[in-house]
Amino acid sequence: MSTAGYPVRVDAHLDPGLSRWLWLVKWLLAIPHYLVLLVLWAAFVVLSIVAFFAILVTGHYPRAIFDFNVGVLRWSWRVGYYAYGALGTDRYPPFTLDEVPDYPAHLEVAYPEKLSRGLVLVKTWLLALPHYLVVAFFAGGSLALASSDNRTRVWSSGLIGLMVLVGAVVLLVTGRYPQSVFDFVLGMNRWVLRVAAYAALMTDEYPPFRFDPGGDDPSEARMTIGTPPPQQPIEAQPPVEAQPPVDTAAPQGAGPPGGPTSAPPAAMAQPAPPEAAGRRWTGGRIVSVVAGAVLLAGSLGLLAASAGLGVLNLASRDRAGFVTTASRTFATSTSAIASSAVQVGASGQDWSGASWALGDARVRAESLDPRPVFIGVAHTADAAAWLAGVDHSTVIGFRNGAPVYRDVTGGAPTVPPEQAGIWAASVSGTGPQELVWPIQSSDWTVVVMHPDGSPGVIVRADAGATLPVLHWLWVAPLVLALVLIVAGVLLVVLAIPRAGRT
């Protein structure tokens, strides 16, 4: 496929007298540009998504977004050309999205008046796949390989990086960057940038599978300001002796004798009209779009967190709506098993107003022998007073999923548990038993034993709570995400119409 007239044009010229040593520290000098490009590319991605839907609906790429995204590509190309994408100049790249005519690296993309609504759905992820393989070879990347330790990874800097290194070493030794290496590197960068513009939906014309080395792009679609149209052939010009005598008094700025078809270069360099200035991306507009893009990107993380919390909340509940611990076996030779004190609310503070957030607590237990089981919950101080002198075991933690006890020696309870009169709630019987009570602010202890106080307790038990607050926990990041989306959209939308206003 011919590259003539391709809408993406990449040009550069090799600066003479490159420093032998400066390339060794360009990674440091370019850090400010890398930081700026980091946020510019975040905005590039967000605006490309906006452009995707605009093309899908209208068939047009919004001009202001197009100019911004081309500017990001141009900025990236200039930084790459200065640094390790080419090392073609020692002149520091300008901090601007606009074309800089006297800088040695240029990138131009012709604005498409109309784009296909159908192609926009498949260009980036499907049609460009063959080119991505070539770009990966040129620009580099990483490849993970399966291995026994799952740690093997092969990294390639790409052919561009390799050839730039060769040119840098030759420059270091001889003081001259090899022209052949430069031409080859420019051809690879030109291929990569054409694919980047196509994947960013800037053109429907498929990138040519053709390697075009050298600093001058062979495309005929040159858009550089100040390039005059071709003059008429010399034989088509009138003879000099046929010119009227008044021509000798023509002003100094008059154009060549090519007739009205030859546009004076000075006219091409005139300042942009006022209406064109309204289409430029000023620093304030760029900051507005970047800030909006950052907010929109942050909102995506909050939306993901909200969705994850919502799914986790639903998945962690049983059919009765309780968030429940795993069921475990508790066994002791003593007369009772008691939990450690469970504190609800800060010490000395009343959390009764937060009962709506905590809901109900539940303890389920089933005796693994034929005897019935008793479950009771009481204030920790009351439970400790009743258990004083009673042979019992307190659960103080878990190790490898098994409970760890602190045994207290004593005798059988003098009063059956059902008659103790200390319980905030209790239940007893054979088979599975379930105790549910509203969570209130205090210190609580759960006791499990046989109703007759006989020693040797072995049960299968779990605990849970409704915790209604978890139903709303996912709402907070969702609301914050919506706020960020609104703010981000406003920052982007308010900047784009101003940039595109004529």
Helices, by number, come to 14
Mean of all residue-level pLDDT scores: 84
Helix content: 25-40%
How far apart, in Å, are the first and last alpha carbons? 38 Å
Describe the main β-sheet briefly: 7 strands, mixed
Strand tally, please? 16
Run of helices and strands: EHHHEHHEEHHHHHEEEEHEEHEEEEEEHH
Main structural class: alpha+beta
Rg estimate, integer Å:
38 Å
Low-confidence stretches: 143-148, 221-278
Polypeptide structure, described:
This protein has 502 residues and is an alpha+beta fold. The protein has 14 helices and 16 strands. The protein has helices at 26-29, 31-58, 63-82, 123-127, 129-139, 158-174, 179-199, 265-268, 274-277, 283-315, 355-358, 380-387, 469-473, 475-500, and strands spanning 8-12, 105-109, 141-144, 153-156, 323-324, 328-332, 336-339, 342-344, 360-367, 373-379, 392-399, 402-408, 425-429, 433-438, 442-449, 457-465. The strands form four sheets. Strands 7, 8, 10, 11, 12, 13 and 15 form a seven-stranded mixed β-sheet that branches. Strands 5, 6, 9, 14 and 16 form a five-stranded antiparallel β-sheet that branches. The chain has a two-stranded antiparallel sheet with strand order 1-2. The longest helix is centred in the middle third of the chain and has 33 residues, at 283-315. The protein starts with 7 loop residues before the first strand and ends with a helix.
